[in-house]
Each structure stands twice: as C-alpha cells, then as structure tokens.
C-alpha cells in the first residue's frame, strides 16, 4: 500500500480519537415541548388570552343528557354541536335496552369477536343494519374512523388506485395511505375531473375505489349518486360512500343517500356508517354484498380480527335506536324541516352557508379568518349558544366556519333566536 494512503489512514484514525463527533442531543429530540405542534399550540393559547376569547368549549364537559339544551360549568347552553341528530340517545326504549344488555352480558364483549367476543346481539344488529340499508350483509366494529381505515387498507394494495373527493374525511385518506395504493383527489363534487382522472389512469390500476361522503361533514352538501353510479359502471370501479352523517338523516325514512335519490342501494358497493350519530351509540359498520362482508369479517385487521367486539351496551343502544327510527320516521322529517328552516333563514339574513341545502343535519356559517371565527363563536357562547368553530387546517385557510348540527330536538324558536344573535355578531 502506498505510503501516502497509509499516512492518510493514520491521520484519520488519530483525528477520530482526538476529535470525536459531537454527540446528538437525544434529550431534546425526546422533549415533546420542542415539537412544532407544541409551539403552535402555545401560540394559539396566547392569542386566546390576548383577545379574551373563550376556547374551553373544545373540551367542555356537560352534566346530564345531550338534548337541545345542556348544562355546562359555564351555565345552561343551547346546543348546536351534538351528534344526537334524532334525539334517540334519550329515548326511554333505548336507555332501557342498554341497561338490560349490561345485566345480561356484562359491560364487555370479552375478546375479539373471532375468538370469544361474539354475542348474539352483534349479529342481530348487523342483520338489521343490512336490511335497513338495503344490502346483503353488514359487519359492526368499535370505530367509524377505524372502519374506513381498515376496509381501504384491506381491499387496496400497491397496484390499485383510490380516487377521492378532496373534502373526504381524514379517515378515508388515512385508509388510503395505509393501503399503499396510489391516491388521487378530485375537486369537491367535480365529477368531470373524476372522469378525466379515470380516463388517464384506470388502465394502469388493477382495482379502483371511488370514495365520497354521502353528506359532507364540514359543508352539509351531498354527493350526486346518479352521476357517480354512471361513472363507476363505465370505468369498472367500486363505489364507497361514507354515510356517517347521512344514514338516519337523508331520505324519507333515513335510509341514506340511495333513498334520497330514489335509487337501489345495491349500486353502492361499500357503505360505511357510524353508530355514534343517528343510532345514539358508538362504533362503525360496513354494509355490502355477502362475499365482501365475509372477507372483511375474517381478514380485515382493524375490524374483528385484532379488535375487541363492540360492547353489549353500545350494541343494544344502536339496535334499539334503529328499531325506533324504523317505527318513527317522522323524526327524520322533523330534522330535515329544521335544517331547511335554518338554511333559508340564514341566507335571508345574508349569511354564507356555502352549498348546504337543508337536506342534512350540518349547516356551516362561513366566517373567513380563523380569529374572526373564534371571536364570533366565543360571543355566541357568552350569550348561551354552543356551536363550535372549525378552523384551518380542518378547512381551507380563510374559510373558518361555525358548524351547526341541526337536530330533530330543536324548536323553531331556538333556531330563530340563534340566527338573530349570529346576525348581530357578524354585523358587529
């Protein structure tokens, strides 16, 4: 070996012994207070204090049941931030069924359903959900968010394509990421762009899922099912509809998007729904054909395979709520009438409610800058109305909104009063 190379090697060894590389500060790397999100959180809290904005309503505890008005540590408030769309969480039949289930089964399903956690009420609920939505079968799990993630992660892989509305809920995006499939978004309700995407990319993917929401959780508008069915048939795709906010609220009897459009529900390949809204419980479910449900039940990791079954209490509550809903569809009519009234009167007052059509329980009043939205919501809260502001990045920048959840429990006078207060605050 040439002497100059040997000399270089000796110098390198000597330097490494006498001048070790500086040690990484691992303590700082494991300090949560150095994370960018913590800095942002602190900045937000400081802004609340500076501008005297009450922001504790983001984790505001209540006492008593969720009705049109609730009791909070800051007094009684008129509530427009609850999922109890049909008022079934307080129905004596639902409460009694929940209590009876705990007496019969105890408080816990016991295990993952495949290995000891199955109770007969699980299948009873699934069969009645399938019948209600017009599908062959259903599977129930502990989380609506987890249902979207698990189904997409199982059905799609690296050779596949997920095409979704760009306002799709985070759970659908997360499921697409976990699947490893290629993901492409089309502008909200822009089905011409959806077709252009499929024209360019359909031939390069094995399976394709078109993913939309039945009623959009931030905007309150609905998907154009006739157009989506036409597109999915032309391009050989599966259509998946997240009906978290539309099941129990859309259609004459609350059966969701297909009933609203007077179309057979079988055209939708995959329906996701939650038990935490119209069905006054907690959990998620998937409806579809028997082969798909059998595969999801057996192989999808986050549904039944590695997850404990939904609790007996939640199972019984959802089942009882579903039965009351079927017996009393006038609850759906009352909710829809309240939503239409809110939309008409908000527009009459010059408020920007986007594309909300009064067909679903969600009506946003779009404010603009985040701090302005926070100030208006804070002033409403001081005057006895609880409706949460939704801010960037949940919605696009400078499109903050106060999101109103309309329910069958609200009285017309409560809607008029709230809009009068809001109109004054926006003017001020």
From TrEMBL:
One of its GO terms (molecular function) is transaminase activity. The keyword Transferase applies. Residues 77-420 form the Aminotransferase class I/classII large domain. InterPro entries: Aminotrans_II_pyridoxalP_BS, Aminotransferase_I/II_large, AON_synthase_class-II, PyrdxlP-dep_Trfase, PyrdxlP-dep_Trfase_major, PyrdxlP-dep_Trfase_small. It comes from the Bacteria. It catalyses: 6-carboxyhexanoyl-[ACP] + L-alanine + H(+) = (8S)-8-amino-7-oxononanoate + holo-[ACP] + CO2. Pathway: Cofactor biosynthesis; biotin biosynthesis. Its cofactor is pyridoxal 5'-phosphate. The keyword tRNA-binding does not apply. Keywords: Aminotransferase, Biotin biosynthesis, Pyridoxal phosphate, Transferase. Coiled coil: none annotated. Its EC number is 2.3.1.47. Homodimer. Belongs to the class-II pyridoxal-phosphate-dependent aminotransferase family. BioF subfamily. This is 8-amino-7-oxononanoate synthase. It comes from Teichococcus vastitatis.
């Amino acid at each position: 070996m040439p002497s100059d190379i040997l000399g270089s090697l000796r110098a390198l060894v000597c330097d490494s012994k006498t001048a070790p590389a500086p040690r990484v500060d691992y303590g700082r790397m494991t300090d949560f207070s150095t994370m960018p999100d913590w800095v942002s959180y602190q900045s937000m809290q400081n802004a609340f204090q500076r501008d005297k904005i009450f922001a504790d309503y983001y984790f505001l505890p209540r006492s008593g049941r969720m009705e049109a008005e609730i009791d909070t540590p800051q007094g009684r408030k008129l509530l427009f931030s609850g999922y109890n769309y049909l008022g079934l969480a307080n129905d004596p039949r639902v409460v009694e069924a929940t209590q009876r289930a705990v007496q019969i089964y105890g408080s816990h399903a016991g295990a993952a359903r495949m290995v000891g956690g199955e109770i007969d009420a699980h299948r009873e609920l699934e069969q009645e959900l399938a019948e209600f939505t017009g599908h062959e079968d259903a599977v129930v799990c502990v989380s609506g968010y987890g249902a979207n993630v698990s189904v997409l992660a199982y059905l799609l892989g690296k050779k596949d394509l997920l095409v979704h509305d760009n306002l799709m809920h985070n759970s659908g995006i997360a499921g697409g990421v976990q699947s490893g499939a290629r993901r492409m978004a089309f502008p909200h309700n822009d089905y011409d762009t959806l077709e252009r995407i499929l024209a360019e990319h359909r031939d390069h993917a094995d399976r394709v899922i078109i993913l939309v929401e039945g009623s959009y959780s931030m905007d309150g508008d609905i998907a154009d099912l006739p157009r989506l069915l036409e597109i999915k048939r032309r391009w050989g795709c599966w259509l998946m509809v997240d009906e978290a906010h539309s099941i129990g609220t859309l259609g004459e009897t609350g059966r969701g998007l297909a009933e609203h459009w007077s179309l057979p529900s079988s055209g939708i390949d995959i329906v996701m729904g939650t038990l935490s809204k119209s069905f006054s419980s907690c959990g998620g479910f998937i409806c579809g054909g028997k082969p798909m449900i059998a595969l999801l039940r057996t192989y999808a990791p986050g549904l039944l395979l590695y997850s404990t079954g939904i609790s007996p209490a939640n199972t019984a509550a959802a089942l009882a709520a579903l039965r009351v809903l079927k017996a009393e569809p006038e609850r759906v009519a009352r909710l829809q009438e309240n939503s239409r009234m809110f939309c008409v009167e908000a527009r009459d007052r010059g408020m920007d409610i986007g594309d909300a059509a009064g067909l679903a329980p969600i009506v946003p009043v779009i404010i603009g800058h985040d701090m302005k939205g926070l100030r208006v919501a804070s002033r409403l809260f001081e005057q006895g109305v609880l409706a949460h502001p939704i801010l960037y990045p949940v919605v696009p920048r400078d499109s903050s909104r106060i999101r109103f959840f309309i329910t069958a429990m609200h009285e017309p006078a409560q809607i008029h009063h709230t809009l009068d207060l809001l109109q004054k605050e926006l003017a001020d």
